Amino acid sequence: MDMSSLKRAIYPMPEDVKSALRERGLVERYEARPPYQRNDYIGWITRAKRRETRQKRLAQMLEELMSGTAYMGMKYHAEKNQGMGVADGVAESGEEGGGQVWT
Question: Which of 16, 36, 45, 78 could form a disulfide with 82 if both were Cys (CB 3.0 to 4.6 A apart)?
Answer without folding.
Answer: 78
